Each structure stands twice: as structure tokens, then as C-alpha cells.
């Protein structure tokens, strides 16, 4: 069975839109494209490199696929060699140019097709960018591994990793590191259901009971 792995760059307030440059994604008037650039250094190259040293295929949403297809076929570096060689599974419900070598369209019954894809033999499926696709994956509990780079900035607007519809799940941290510029890298795997408890005393005060009743009426 294949795992779905999501590596993502995000701000402290969870924004993942257009980390790499101003023209990457200006949708909804987003004006902070390239926010990742000032924090990038040699240390920041290491973790993505380790993640992509494993065997994987790409799983992409339409917009990220179009960004990648306009860039990577024209690159001769190590990442370009990998991306051009492997399969690219593309989730899209509108017409799209699929001429990039080894591209495979998923355009109907998306969730079931993704479940079938996971059940197949083959390399794991890695999702870069693709914020809309991420929402679908998180809403249907299809993500197995998260790698996050959290940058020490807040933007206040933009597409986010965890939007409304994300399912309640518990995650276990398996690795972490902080860069010299304050970027926090962390890896997580699924770790069962969310567990809750309470620090409240066993017997609530009359004031606390009154507060609860008041809030229920509001």
C-alpha cells in the first residue's frame, strides 16, 4: 500500500500560498509571494533533499501541476531529473494540458480514485503545493505523513494548510530541527484518534455552573 506524504512550507499562521516567488500564485489578491526566500540557506536544503532521496511519485493539484510543468521540464538539476522521470498524478476537474512526460489525469470520482491509487503497489505519493488537493486529502483522512517547515512570520491572509473540513486526528512527531534563521522543520505520522481530558475540578462551583448555562443560552 502506498502512503501519501505531504511536505509543505508554511507561515506561523498556517499560510502556504506562493512561498517561492511573487508570480507563483497571486489569486485572491495575494501580495506576499516569495516570503520563504529570505530564510533559505544551505541548512534549509538538507531536509527537502533527504525527503526526495526516497522513491516516490508526484500527486498534484491542477495549479501546482501547471507551475511545475512550466518549470521543471526545462531544468537539468537533480530535482528536475527526478520530477521529469517519475509519474505525475494530476487531480483536475477542468481542462488541462497533460503534455509533461509521465503525467496521469485523475478527473472523476476523485476521492475513490485516490483511495484506489493508495491501495496499489508502487512508490509513495508525494504532494507539493496543491492547497486545494490537500484539503480533500485531509478531509478524507488520506494523508499518512506530514513534513512541515514553519517560518517565523505571519501574513494574515492566503491559502492555508488546515482549513475548515480538516478531520480531527492525532499526529506523532518523528523528527524535528530548527534552522539558524528560526525555521522549524517537523515530521509527523498518524497516531490514532484525538484524546481529550479535563483539568476542571470534579465538582464545579455554582459560579462555573452559572457560566456554562449562560454560554449555552448565548
From TrEMBL:
Organism: Dyadobacter sp. 676
Residue ranges of every copy of the Bacterial bifunctional deaminase-reductase C-terminal domain listed in the record: 2-184
Listed Pfam families: RibD_C
Molecular function as annotated in GO: 5-amino-6-(5-phosphoribosylamino)uracil reductase activity
Superkingdom, natural source: Bacteria
Protein name per UniProt: Dihydrofolate reductase family protein
GO BP annotation list: riboflavin biosynthetic process
